[in-house]
Amino acid sequence: MKFYELTPQERRNFLEREGYITHNDARLLRLTPLLREYAADGMIENQVGIMGIPIGLLMGLKVNGDEYNVPMATEEPSVVAGACAGAKIARENGGVNAAIWPLRVIPADIVFQRVSPEQQEEFEKKIEDHNKDMMKVMRKSVPTLTHHNGGIEGISCFSIRRGEFWKVRLWIWPGEAMGANIANKLSEAEAKYLEGLLGIKPLAAILSNAETETVACSVEIDPDTLETKTEPGLSIARKIVDLSRWSEMDDTRAVTHNKGIMNGVVACALANGNDTRAVEAAAHWYASRGGSYKPLSTWFFKPDTRKKILVGKLFMPMAIGRVGFSITTLGTPQLCQRILGAEDLWGTQKVFGAVGLVQNLAALKSIASEGITQGHLKVRSYNLARAAGAQGEEIKKVAKHMTQNSKRTVRQAGIKLAKMRDSEIFEDYEDKDE
Ligand code: MEV
Fold first, then answer.
1. Which of the chain's ends, N or C, has fewer CB atoms near its CB within 10 Å?
2. Residue at 223 is within a domain
3. pLDDT the model gives residue 387
4. What is the pLDDT of residues 340-395, one digit of tens each?
């Protein structure tokens, strides 16, 4: 049986048997909620409840030659199914290649107002001369980070509108943390120091979500592997290229194209306990950094090949961490990290980027062939059939019925399943009678 045809318990058993998770992990996954009330209360203000979001597994995503099972947390029914479909096509074509460049430094700004050009020069000189003192302030404000060789990697000054705003930008290496808290704490401490040094009060000290580090992913697809029952692969590939060009020329399409990518990326980030808004903010900043909003991925035919090869490339920031408050407080993220099995933060970022690319491929293929509604309908019908308790061959039969039924609920799927089982028992009974 395929992974998606198993019950949740059977899937956990499979993961345990295959050594992806321990017996204790399987128990943890089964317990709902994984988050205890006292921990939830300690996380946010006015806590009154805990919300559950299903975690699904994208099985067998091939990245740089290794296969990963990727936990994804999402409320959108077709996301995990889409990612699995995209990953399957990518796997049949050798998988996704991924790299990161340049390595991550979090920007944090200490901003001053109305700084004349002469003052700017004077301030820059003072900052340069007092670099050692600034490092002392850093070691005092984030000692644990500096023990791990993290901290300020560079300092640069920027003038905005001829000094209407003038900012001292700290470039901070946060180790395997996402870095927001570190960057804020560090910039606030340095702001106090600079106020004394420069004799001018800063307006603010705050991190910037404009992540400098970029994940670069690419995949090469033989169009034949895109074939559907009704359409040749090359025709679909051509439409994928056209869809991609459309998104490059029309920002109102680019934002939807990117939303499809973020469906996968954010689901991974959420399962791993990351700040999904930071991931989104950085991605959309990156998409519009040239002055107009652009797609994060592009699809084109490889030049100069006899046989047409579809190439997909994605570039985007990946503002996540592997350590931090919510990751340790919530029960699931560490477990999801164990299931993912990436060796470090950078490995995780590459996998998340690859998920974005295959998610995008699945969406574009769907739009280019049967249409997104038909695809969603199929996925929803399968989910309902399974939720109603259908097993093995029953799943397909109940799902087919659900696609044709205007009432699509677990109850309706259950009624169909019960009727189906009844008639099978009846048929068996008649067989025995003969
Ligand atoms: C739906 O959640 C995402 C899509 O709209 C993305 C796209 O249009 O490329 C299908």
1. C
2. yes
3. 85
4. 999 999 999 999 999 999 999 999 999 999 888 877 777 778 888 888 888 888 88
How many Å lie between the centroid of ligand 1 and the Cα of residue 235?
20
Nearest-5° angle of CA 289, CA 293, CA 298?
100
Asked if residue 263 and residue 121 are part of one domain, the reply reads no
Which residues are identified as catalytic?
76, 259, 275, 376
pLDDT digits (tens, 9 = 90+) for 162-175: 999 999 999 999 98
- Pairwise CA distance, residues 264 & 202, whole Å: 39
| Contact (CB, 8 A) for 57 and 29 | no
pTM listed for this prediction: 0.89
Tokens of 64: 């740089």
Q: Are residues 408 and 317 in the same domain?
A: no
Neighbouring residues of 206: CB distance < 8 A, sequence distance ≥ 6: 108, 109, 111, 184, 187
- 12 part of a folded domain: no
In whole numbers, what is the pLDDT of the chain averaged over residues?
92
CATH of the domain at 167: 3.30.70.420
The residue contributing the CA closest to ligand 1 atom 3 is 260
Do 97 and 243 fall into the same domain?
Answer: yes
* CA 89–ligand 1 middle distance (angstroms): 18
Residue span of the structural domain in which 175 resides: 106-207
Distance 52 CA to ligand 1 centre (A): 24
Q: What are phi and psi of 168, to 5 degrees?
A: -100, 115
pLDDT one-digit tens code per residue, 251-279: 999 999 999 999 999 999 999 999 999 99
For the chain, the domain total comes to 3
Q: Mark whether 363 and 227 lie in a shared domain.
A: yes
